């Protein structure tokens, strides 16, 4: 978001999943640079105003990574199209060769920088996906332990129900986070993809679709309060262990 924001109108507004805007900070020139937000723990935290996204009904916070992805996915294809139009103009003798050469170098330099940035973003996202995979494996192993101990009777039904719910909720959160990362990776990869004369055939696997199925398989009980889930008799939820 631009620094030219309606800062007074945002004071007191809630920021989704973050807290409430209590004020803004300005630099010596008088420009609004940072928002002061009271987070959900009562702490005051500074955020750059360009990370605030003001929608019609709410204010939300976007990450630096989200901003980079947005810029890459919007600007890279546009610059590539402009570069091709520039070549057409030169080919049709609409512009002098000197101007074409000069502008081509500028476009090519910008494209190169953006492609490097896109590759860096993809590498960063690969690391984040790996982190989620490790988290999922940890949660799955903890569930296996709980299921076994409950199965042999060393963990009571009540304790089991109270313990399994937070594990299932975190599994769902990790799966959804990984799904979001994979979708964003696809968005960046599409922006990097050069336009072809012939339509390319889709041959790559669809990890996003597979993960959607996994998220859907998490029991609905994971969304409810643990205490409300206690049932009579042992009912071990099915164990599904996957490699991260």
Description:
The protein starts with 6 loop residues before the first helix and ends in a 27-residue tail after the last helix. The relative contact order is 0.09. α2 packs antiparallel against α3 (97-151), α3 (97-151) runs antiparallel to α4 (157-192) and α4 packs antiparallel against α5. The chain folds into 2 domains: 7-62, Photosynthetic Reaction Center, subunit H, domain 2 (Photosynthetic Reaction Center, Chain H, domain 2); 67-192 and 207-226. It has 244 residues and is of the alpha+beta class. Mean pLDDT is 83; it is low at 196-201 and 223-239. The chain has 5 helices and 6 strands. Helices cover 55% and strands 12% of the residues. A hairpin with a 5-residue loop joins β2 and β3 (32-39). The strands form 2 sheets. The protein has a 4-stranded antiparallel sheet. A two-stranded antiparallel sheet has the order 5-6.
- SS strand fraction: 5-15%
Mean pLDDT: 83
Strand pairing plus helix content: what structural class? Answer: alpha+beta
The helix-strand sequence is HEEEEEEHHHH
Coarse shape: flat
Gyration radius over CA: 25 Å
Q: What is the count of structural domains? A: 2
Low-confidence stretches: 196-201, 223-239
Q: How would you characterize the largest beta sheet?
A: 4 strands, antiparallel
Can you list the strand order of the major beta sheet?
A: 1-2-3-4
Enumerate how many helices there are, as a single number.
5
């Amino acid at each position: 978001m631009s620094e030219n924001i309606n800062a007074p109108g945002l004071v007191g507004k809630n920021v989704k999943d973050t807290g409430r805007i209590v004020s803004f900070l300005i630099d010596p020139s008088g420009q609004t640079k940072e928002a002061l937000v009271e987070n959900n723990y009562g702490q005051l935290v500074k955020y750059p105003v360009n990370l605030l996204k003001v929608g019609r009904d709410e204010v939300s916070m976007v990450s630096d990574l989200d901003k980079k992805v947005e810029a890459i996915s919007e600007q890279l294809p546009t610059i590539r199209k402009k570069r091709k139009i520039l070549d057409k103009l030169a080919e049709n003798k609409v512009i002098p060769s000197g101007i074409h050469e000069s502008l081509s170098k500028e476009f090519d330099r910008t494209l190169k920088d953006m492609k490097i940035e896109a590759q860096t973003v993809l590498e960063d996202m690969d690391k984040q996906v790996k982190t989620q995979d490790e988290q999922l494996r940890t949660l799955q192993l903890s569930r296996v332990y709980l299921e076994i101990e409950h199965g042999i009777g060393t963990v009571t039904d009540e304790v089991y129900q109270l313990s399994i719910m937070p594990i299932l909720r975190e599994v769902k959160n990790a799966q959804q986070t990984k799904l979001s990362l994979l979708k964003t990776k696809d968005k960046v990869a599409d922006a990097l993809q050069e336009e072809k004369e012939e339509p390319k055939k889709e041959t790559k696997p669809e990890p996003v679709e597979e993960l959607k199925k996994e998220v859907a398989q998490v029991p609905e009980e994971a969304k409810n309060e643990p205490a409300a889930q206690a049932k009579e008799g042992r009912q071990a939820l099915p164990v599904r262990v996957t490699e991260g």
